[in-house]
Every structure is written in structure tokens, then in C-alpha cells.
Amino acid sequence: KAGVTQTPRYLIKTRGQQVTLSCSPISGHRSVSWYQQTPGQGLQFLFEYFSETQRNKGNFPGRFSGRQFSNSRSEMNVSTLELGDSALYLCASSLGASGRYEQFFGPGTRLTVL
Amino acid sequence: AQSVTQPDIHITVSEGASLELRCNYSYGATPYLFWYVQSPGQGLQLLLKYFSGDTLVQGIKGFEAEFKRSQSSFNLRKPSVHWSDAAEYFCAVGNFQTGANNLFFGTGTRLTVIP
Which of A38, A92, B16, B52 sits a CA distance of 20 to 30 A from A84? Predict the structure, then answer.
């Protein structure tokens, strides 16, 4: 079974631009979560989607948004990029929304903002 | 509020030696606890998890962890480290109250294995 896929793997943008990252969960998984990983702040939860609905959101500004499609694929968007948005963005999928389901992580998208 | 502390930023061990990575958590209810490993350029892989029951849990790759409620700890152990274990290790607590499904991570411990 294929794992979680994230595209693109690497991305370079400039300040003020916007970016869209994509995540394809494991087949059959309906929950997708996004995390931001930086050297200074570590791993921080962005948001979680289940059955196309955002169920939970972390403490990030409104510039960060996401959505989930009917096939469970998810996208996250960051508008008006800032230098501090440079990070590894990780997507995780799980069968269900309960915490008892293991979350499987993708390899991440490395975003660099210049 | 939930939080996870990994007091050791970097640990170096010799191949074949035993390993213990420390993790302390703060959580208002019975915690769901996890250990993940991240190799360079990779995502996170689940090593083991604790939800309830036996406080000593076994994971993949020969790892185990012990939940100690009195110490709010969930330390990861391995009796004999292999060079391939060199990676970054993250302890996490699940925020599953009120139907949420996200993890709070510690800052990680980088493990270096010397021959």
C-alpha cells in the first residue's frame, strides 16, 4: 500500500507570494493533519481535516488555510508568505479521527521563503 | 495545557551500548503517548504508543518505553543500539479531548551512534 504522498517536495518562494501544498493520504484514510516543523519552534500542529471538514486548528494566523476534497486529498495554502514561514510542512493521515488511530506521516514539503 | 519535555537535545552512544531517551509530559487527563523517529529528509515513523494497560510497551526496531504516571514520564529504551538508529527522536502526547486528533511534540533528541 502506498504511503502518504506530499507534493512538491521542495519549494522556493519570495516574501509576499502565496503557496499551495498538496497531500495524498493512504488509500482509505479519511483524516488528514498538517504540521509545521522549524528548528526554533519544533513540530507544531496546523489543522486537521476529516470528511472534508476542518475539525481542529492550531494557533496559526489566518494566512494559513487548508481544505480537504471528497477523495480525502488535502491542500494547505499560505498567503502573503513571510520569512518565518520557511519550514518543513508535514502531512499525516489516519483511518479515523479518533486518537487511537495511528497517524502516518509523509516525507514533507520543504518550503524556503526568500 | 499539554506539553512535552525532552531534556536531552543531543545524545551520543557507542554502537552496541544501551540507550535511554527521556520524555516528560504535562496533561490533564490520562495521556496517549507516542514516540516517533525521523531520519534526515524523512517524515516521522511511529516507534510505539501507550494508551492504557501494561505500562511497558514494545515497539518496532527493538525499542520499548515505560509509562510512569507518578513521574509523568515516558522514557524510550533500547538494550543495544545499532548504527542505523542514528536519527532524531520525538516524544508526543495526543490531544484527544473534545474529539480533537492532534499531537503535541517535544523538541526532539538527536541520537548519534559512534562505531
Answer: A92
